[in-house]
Amino acid sequence: MALVYYLNASLPVSKPHKAQRPSYLTGHLVYNSTVLPHAAFQPPEALPHRHADVVDTFASFKYRNTCNISSLDLHSPFAPLCTDRKSLLAAMSSGGRIGHDAPYIPRECDMRWFSTEEICEILARFEKVIILGDSMMRHVVGSLNVLIRKDLGYGAVTDWNFSPEERQDCFCNYQFNVKACSVQGIFKTGDVVKNDPDSLACPANTIDVIIEQMIRFPIPSEELDRLRALLPAQKPTRPYAFVFGHGLWNDLDLQATLDWLDTLLDVTVNQAPWLGSLSQPVVSHARSRGISAAATRGERSKQASGFWPRLFLTPNAAGKEKPDEWLVSQGNKALMIFEESVREEVKRKGVEHLGTWNMSIQSNKFDGVHLDLRGNLVKAMMVLNWLNMLEVENF
Description:
Blueprint lengths: L1 E6 L21 E6 L29 H4 L17 H9 L2 E2 L6 E2 L10 H8 L4 E6 L1 H15 L14 H6 L8 H4 L7 H7 L13 E5 L7 H10 L9 E6 L8 H18 L8 H9 L4 H10 L7 E4 L18 H16 L4 E3 L2 H4 L12 H17 L6
Helix pairs in contact: 2-14, 4-14, 9-11, 10-11
């Protein structure tokens, strides 16, 4: 049986300095695909942009054989590919694995597994990608550095200043061991540019990814000042993207997480007014109706009308090593309820949501909390898929 798929394609943009998505996302491309009857999953579309999905993109990475990880071990490609952000986020949030630590498979439509060259191009569409949150979010940044440094052994850590003991303790999977290697993690690509520029596969001065660790609410003033320092008052040439992650440090207290997010949204839009205008009458009316300060911040943030991409990642599933004293407040039942609640609440604030519980329930965790290198690489690739879908041409 043959089906006709409609994907996106367009002509090249004439202004190279303006951020843009690839051609397969911005127009329409018609092609025929043979469907295998009675197959649970159809083979990926035979199109150039899906080539990286069906090969081991880690083949040329440092320590590929020693760490023994192939990209094909992490994601199993199929057709059709998701064609919009809403379906993509739903697919990535609700997929699964056929066995423990098996390749991840989104539900109903597929995500991309990008090559390093594609990842560099995606990140270069943004002036800065700011990630705010806890150690789980720090591991997302670490995994992005593994991908752009093409280094499975030490790509997530500051190996340029390692002692012999650190080189042994923070290698391959153990880069994400929070007990032995947390302070050695890379917090921003600027540190790589400064200390080991030759390790970056991306062209010089084209990408900027940074994490500010903000783990609990209330947020200390010095942490908010660091966020303000990242935000220019004038509109930059390329857009900013924001990725948030929070929950465990406030014991999955939904209101604390929403107040944490509202504070960050409020600080961001006030420091960078080019993200969109704020409607002060709406704020005044909200206060006159007796709405709380935190709720007012959320209402103000929703009024921002500029191009302001925001994604919230909820915590991954708990593992069997999770300490017993946390099994009620932070166990898998609590995590599932938290993920569902956050998804609905952040939507009201104009923030998109990516769930990671399904992706991680059948994957390895060091301490019952933190994913290993394999799981974090999948999480980072999910974030890259979201970034890839953003309509940067509207900035």
